[in-house]
Amino acid sequence: MLLERLLIILWMQLTWVSGQQLNQSPQSLSVQEREDVSMNCTSSSTFNNLLWYKQDPGEGPVLLIALFKPGELTSNGRLSAQFGITRKDSFLNISASVPSDVGTYFCAGQHSAPQAPAACTQTCSWNSSLYAAFSS
Question: What CATH homologous superfamily does 7-21+33-98+105-110 map to?
């Protein structure tokens, strides 16, 4: 049985907003369809909220999971994310990857109440980091 291969390319883009930095890792990984995928977001400072978004080619970002409390673990279907106790890190897990998981993934840290992505100014930091693509 021939399985499609899921190729995930992660690039590091450091975003500085008022001296704040967000990093995502790993830089790259490759998994088979139906395998689990995990990515991390770390910050040089604390945030009140941490948000995970996905953006499909030619579309706007879509909120996947919002985290508001230290240590909070949240699930949304095959997705799960946790906000670190120190409010400086988070992970996003995708279980049993499928072709519709292809896209660009963002983590966003906010120092204030949640805002729409277009309204992000001095109160939040964004990091665009993950692009996934399937090939045979």
Answer: Immunoglobulins (2.60.40.10)
